[in-house]
Amino acid sequence: MQRIETRAEAGARPLLCLVTDRRASRRPLVEAVAAAVAGGVDWVQIREKDLEGEALLALAGAVAAAARRAAPRVRVLVNRRIDVALAAALDGVHLGFDGAPPAVARRLLGAGKLVGLSTHGPDEVTAAAEPALSYLQLAPIFAPLSKPTGRAPLGLAALGGARESALPVLAQGGIAAANAGACVEAGAAGVAVTGAILAAADPAEAAAALRRALDAAAPAARTACR
Fold first, then answer.
1. Residue 135 belongs to what domain range?
2. pTM to 2 decimal places
3. Residue 38 three-state SS
4. How many domains does one find in the chain?
């Protein structure tokens, strides 16, 4: 199984994950992703729920190619679609309530790939002790910037349990440079964002601002874990 360092481990920097939504992007998505990766994004999670089949596969291939040109070590995942992850040679898949079971995804993708899962409350984080998983996302911490949601914001306190989780937990929902550091200090291994980068006039600078905020919070987060 692909193992991800947690923010508590010495030298581990907080993860910055860009979750795509081409309808929320001020620039063509492939261009925006490349700029964001150059600015400091570690992972790109392709989340385009209205696309299926060849259209999703083509977009995934284009996004992955652009991201890897910008930074060869970037990891590119796709939501739900294990078949697309395999066909486009992506780095993994992110699952939700409508996705395959983690064990199935792990068996199909193999030990070297990432398998993530969305959660929406501290109890779900605690319950997701699935050995097939690489990481979790917890949302919404704040009111999302890129879309409306029927769920009430959880707040920073919901990230407290992330410190005890066997899996790294990425905070998602309403994350911007102003609050990203607070998420890491509260227990998150990093953040997953959409609007803070894609809705920005300059995705590279927006990503760089988030990167600076996360890195500045990392020493405090490691101290809090001792």
1. 15-224
2. 0.93
3. helix
4. 1
DSSP 59-109: HHHHHHHHHHHH-TT-EEEEES-HHHHHHTT-SEEEE-TTS--HHHHHHHH
The angle at the Cα of 187, spanning 78 to 79, to the nearest 5 degrees, equals: 10
AA identity, residue 131 = P
- The answer to whether the beta carbons of residues 100 and 109 sit under 8 Å apart is no
Strand partners, 45: 19, 77
Residue 142 belongs to a domain with what CATH number? 3.20.20.70
Per-residue pLDDT of the chain (226 residues; tens, 9 = 90+): 665 654 444 357 999 999 999 999 999 999 999 999 999 999 999 999 999 999 999 999 999 999 999 999 999 999 999 999 999 999 999 998 778 999 999 999 999 999 999 999 999 998 988 899 999 999 999 998 877 767 899 999 999 988 888 899 999 999 999 999 999 999 999 999 999 999 999 999 999 999 999 999 988 765 554 3
